[in-house]
Amino acid sequence: MTDRPVTDGPVTDAAGIEAAVTDRPLTDGGRPVRVLWLAKGLGLGGAERLLLNCARHVDRERFEVEVAYVLPWKDALAPDLEKAGIPVHLLTGAPGRRGRDPLWPLRLRSLMAQRRYGLVHTHMPVPAVAARMLLRGPLSVPLVHTEHNMWQRYRLPTRIANSWTYGRNAAVVAVSRAVAASVRPPRRVDPGQWLNVVHHGPDLGGAAGGAQARAEAREALGLPREGVVVGTVGNLTAKKDQRTLLDAFALMRRNHPEAALVLIGSGPLEERLRRHASSLGLDGTAVFAGSRPDVPALLPALDVFTLSSRQEGLPVALMEAMASGLPSVVTRVGGMPEIVDQGVEGLLVQPGDAEALSVALGRLVGGPALRARMSAAARERARRFDAEGAQRRIEAVYEQVLAGRRSTGVTA
User: The domain that contains 101 carries what CATH number?
Assistant: First the structure.
């Protein structure tokens, strides 16, 4: 981890805090603005990979970005961020240690006083609410928040805390129009001037392809070299609904017995899903690959990408699959219909409908010409939502906030 000490407690020297804030670099001061990205964890989830993708494209002449996170056992991407030149601060305990530390908000205050950030950009509700409540008075800085999920997904206490504190945000970035529509802006702001939609895409420079990449990826996943492979990426949870995917795949294999399925990800439902796959006769056909840090390098193993989710914001896994030229079958939830047009880049089905998902998967598994056409369209569509472009649009929000104005509806 980056060697930047964080004091174990509150900062009590108010004069010192005031001086630190006064010396904070500004956009017109000739130095980059120091920005803190505050996240709950740095695991292998989509929101965390989004941070890494954007970090690689920060305009270093204008912004000096650092990252702080709360959960010490979710640290898989911390080394990658540091390799990208981003200092990383753990606000609790030691890396890898499990358990929660209630003192982390105090360490956030100490970090703020030490590092003199010009702006804080929060991700996920818990650290965001804490930042809105703590960063007041002499530690007050502009706050930008990225909303990754539909508000309906949050538990009631989270929604209440959001409602009480959301007005502290100088701007909000939503990862899709569907997510933006679920947000409840404070009464005193004009949503069109405060709420921004930025589709965060993958790092296109990392998209692998070709026969060698395909062979290596299949070997890494233990898949046969030949045959059509359907794949999904995501935590094994109820909201991702891989149970419906297993049901659909079992139905589809009646007409396409040569097809295989790979599930990349881990989660609380893994054992239950393994048992269900076995009960459907999918032993040896449905591969549970576990959580993997090298998802983009594994995507060439697939012929069809699918998500059976019941809830989504805008899944990074789908964007990465499209950048790899994979046609997709996804559910009509969240932001997915915003980037997959029916019959163009893929097929859309209703969530929870195993029969409809089975039919759609069968069309692609049994239609190489259809797969080829959708593959080209998916790759072309992904170019519009690359990580570099997303980071430039986020930086435009920063500039507007730092200039003392509400952001002006940057949309992509």
Answer: 3.40.50.2000
